[in-house]
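Re-run with default settings, no changes from the original entry. Doing this only to confirm the output is reproducible before filing.
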Amino acid sequence: MSITKEQIIAALSQVEDPDFKKDLVSLGMIKDITFDDNNISFTVELTTPACPLKDQIEQDCRNAIAQMVSNTAKVTINFTSRVTTLRDKKDILPNVKNIVVISSGKGGVGKSTVAVNLALALSNSGASVGLVDADIYGPSIPTMLGIHGQKPGLQKIDDKSKIVPVDYLGMKVMSIGLLISEKQPVAWRGPMATSALRQIMTDVLWDELDYLILDLPPGTGDIHLTLAQSFPITGAVIVTTPQEVALADARKAVAFYQLDQIKIPILGVVENMAYFIPPDMPEKKYYIFGKGGGRLIAQQFEIPFLGELPIEQVIREGGDLGKPAALQFSNPAAKAFGDLAQSVAQQIAIHNANFVTT
């Protein structure tokens, strides 16, 4: 019995995307179906290169073909990705599909560490990524990436000068720390700081980006209000540590983004410095600062819990030496940041899909 395209489509229409709870065919994720004799080939277009469910989708497709078309067919499945967006090309920053803010209620919880390594993990997955150091008063990204001394360029576009961001392993980076001396304090009042932020966002020549990650200062002040009211933010990631003093401020950060005048979707909560694994005892896991605080906040506010990140020497050293842990692939910390990138990308895709269908 010969294979038909209709049979293949009917089989794949039984495969459900685990995130969207709809079949791959109706979602438009099946492309380029070809077949001859006993060979079947098609492409699955994922909503992000960092899709954590790729293996499951592939296996479900193979099972559907075997059950409904032919259990002897040679099936070739190719994967591509197209990061979804709700942005309009007429919006501010038209080349950026998704703007994600990394926020915390207080300092010292590792927000910049999370922002840098999340951005790199997304870039490692194949996404096009930009990173903005929005902490005008305390820029740390130049140190964490080891790019002190590098200066953004200038390029004329339609008689206007645009800033060319620094390229770091294919990721585009912008920080006020790249424009001033490392030892120079930023002694500006609020309006000057917010004006500088707008400049390093809108006067920059951004490439086509799937994700623009913004490392925010602690708290809920001028910078946060400016971003919320001036830019179409896709969502916020809240960073906390397990201690109650950090959790209390994290709750305030969540409440800030839920204010009526803000209304920025919260992609989830990530618990940093959650546990310690001794290098000589990898089977042990010590919860030095408490356990489960980030998960509790997620439950209280009914928002996603994005996972736990370990406290490890390699993460601290990586930030100090400009060698981020996300690039040290043999270390468990790199996997933890990779898992976080998958979770964040997954939540962005779900948010964008739900927004369109509601």
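DSSP finds ten helices and 15 strands in the chain. Residues 332-357 form the longest helix (26 residues).
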